[in-house]
Amino acid sequence: MASDRVERTYRLEPLDTSGVFLGLGIVQCVLLGGGITLAVLAITAGVPVLLAAVPIVGGGTEAVGLAMARRELHVPALAALIEMARKLSV
Q1: Does residue 1 lie in a domain region?
Q2: Whole-number Å distance between alpha carbons of 35 and 49
Q3: How many whole angstroms separate alpha carbon 71 and alpha carbon 59?
Q4: CA distance linking residue 61 with residue 65, whole number of Å
Q5: pLDDT tens across 65-88, in order?
Q6: In 3D, which of 51, 49, 58, 53 has the Cα closest to residue 28?
Q7: What is the C-alpha end-to-end distance of the chain, expressed in Å?
Q8: DSSP code, position 53
């Protein structure tokens, strides 16, 4: 019995290589991981939770801003977070 070669009627797309983890690049993963690490260390040291959340929000803002390539949002967002942290610590 000879094997007949049948032409495929479908084509698979190439694998997605857009990100390291959940579509995020290495820089975004480092920013989010660093923010989470700083927040955990701050809570462990006894810092109030709202103040300890600032690194997570800052890292998330930077990661999303980099992903969206909206660099003009970075400095004002971080300045607002620093100002909020300063007001909370007083």
Answers
A1: no
A2: 13
A3: 14
A4: 6
A5: 765 665 555 566 667 777 777 777
A6: 58
A7: 86
A8: T
CA-based R_g, the chain, Å: 22
The number of distinct structural domains making up the chain is 1
CA–CA gap between residue 8 and residue 43 (Å, rounded): 57
- Residue 3 per-residue DSSP state: P
Tell me what pLDDT residue 37 has: 92
Residue 68 covered by a domain: yes
Closest CA to 40 of 56, 17, 26: 56
Residue 13 has what DSSP assignment? P
Residues 6+ apart with CB under 8 A from 34: 55, 59
Token output for 48: 């109030």
pTM here?
0.56
Question: What confidence tens digit (pLDDT) does each residue in 27-49 have?
Answer: 888 888 898 999 999 999 998 98
Write out the residue range of the structural domain in which residue 32 sits: 26-89
- For residue 21, what is the DSSP state? B
